Amino acid sequence: MARSRSSSMAWRWRGRWRYMNPAYYLKRPKRLALLFIAFLSLSFFLWDRQTLQREHQEELWKLKEQVLQLQNQLEEFKNDDFPVHKTNLATINIDDLPIDPIEIQRREKVKDAMIHAWTSYEKYAWGHDELQPQSKNGVDSFGGLGATLIDSLDTLYIMGLHEQFQKAREWVASSLDFNKNYDASVFETTIRVVGGLLSAYDLSGDDVFLEKAKDIADRLLPAWDTPSGIPYNIINLVNGNAHNPGWTGGDSILADSGTEQLEFIALSQRTGDPKYQQKAENVILELNKTFPADGLLPIYINPHKGTTSYSTITFGAMGDSFYEYLLKVWIQGNKTTAVKHYREMWETSMKGLLSLVRRTEPSSFAYLSEKIGSSLIDKMDELACFAPGMIALGSSGYGPDESSKLLSLAEELAWTCYNFYQSTPTKLAGENYFFHSGQDMTVGTSWNILRPETVESLFYLWRLTGNKTYQDWGWNIFQAFEKNSRVEAGYVGLKDVNTGVKDNIMQSFFLAETLKYLYLLFSPPSLISLDEWVFNTEAHPLRIVTRMASGEGSKKHKAANNNNIRLRARREGRFGKA
Fold first, then answer.
1. CB contact at 8 A, 547 and 341
2. What is the pLDDT of residues 50-70, one digit of tens each?
3. pTM of structure
4. What kind and span of H or E run contains 195?
5. Residue 259 marked in a binding site
6. Phi-psi group of 103: left, alpha or beta (phi > 0 → left; psi -120 to 50 → alpha; rest → beta)
7. Among 258, 263, 244, CA closest to 297
8. What is the enzyme's class at the highest EC level (predicted)?
9. Catalytic residues, which ones?
10. Smallest Cα–Cα separation from 197: which of 154, 160, 239?
11. Which runs of E-coded beta strand occur in 296-353?
12. Backbone φ and ψ of 256, nearest 5°
């Protein structure tokens, strides 16, 4: 019986398996047609289900945005004596928001890169300014102020790297010492150290960062004690002796003198002490007295007379961030009449910028030339690739037609900057480019030191247009960094983008700017919303605070401001140090 049962079962299974044989259907065309129709129906069902799911995710995203806006409005009603844009960082868990799976994957890859860079710094250069990855040691390029650590604080916080942030916070509290007999760059110390500490304070609400920011700013203040108020660009952190570098002929540098306003205004708002803001804003008032009709200033300024010297006009090195801060101080002050003159000066400078725009042959790449006297120079720094993002960010302040033209120019310039990368064998950009008739672009200085400017502009253009092409370009640049710059102990620049020969330094701005902008490029727009935050030139986000005609630095504002920061930090409850 058992053998007979087994044979019967085998026969039945063979009968069922014949339906899996293609020959069975070839002899029965009607059944083949029915099978094909069933397959198509199932495919359409699954496709429609995926479409509905995507649409459902988009609706959820919109609803979450509306809820966040309502939360912010409710906070404003609770604190209507201090009209500040409220951050939603404390109420957002980025991992809970439904977004494109590709964006999630890319964002995590960038986060992994940050962990690799930070872990290497922590292991081989802890407390030093920068890491030398090839030789696996630290160097003090900025006088031993822990530049990489401070530059990385907000990046760690934004990426949710809690343990790393807390360990860095403890170092700041216990080991950060500014009493160094060192001649520091006022510009670099302001954008990296003051800016980094203030951003960490705005994000976490931890007073230790504010106290340290005040300490270093107090040491920088004597640099502004000049007849014109235009600061000297170098100062000793112990004795306060200030001077300019010898190679400028005694002049101050435009970008170095006009790129402290965001940080010093923010510091006055947070501390209630107006002296920082007054020093920094007096520079703009002085320059505005003789501001030219085209809004373009040479890179050298006499600190005794407050007048410019015959020198290069450029949106690249030594000129760049002066123009950036004219726009961003206006944004930082929430675009009120108290900061209207910044916007007016910026718009004047944009008229001058248009006079520098030229296009290559045969591909018609738009670029920003430089100028000496009345002569244009067909050269553009990669540093000037911040300009597309700046132009896009400021375009919304114009009428529809002018805004559209400027945004179009920003997109053209971003395409050129992206091609700075794509035109080399390593797909990484050189330091500057020259343009010749019939040749489009050729790399000049061929090193790459992990600069962020192009990625910065891609971030702004994606945020402002929603065009995912900018995300794809940013991803390509990130992959080129991974391929050419990643080493066992961090990331390095290239001595030559044509050969790929590596250098031995991991610039602090790679963690502060390049990786942060890449991370935000693949994150929801609500993470560090441009309606609530403004980035300094080192990519440190500072909260937007409405400026009024008077009383910005009052104790009432300071108390309400700091109270709001601490309440948000407690609500988030990440680090428990608020």
1. no
2. 444 445 455 544 554 554 455
3. 0.82
4. helix 195-204
5. no
6. alpha
7. 258
8. hydrolase
9. 188, 320, 431, 453
10. 154
11. 300-301
12. -65, -25
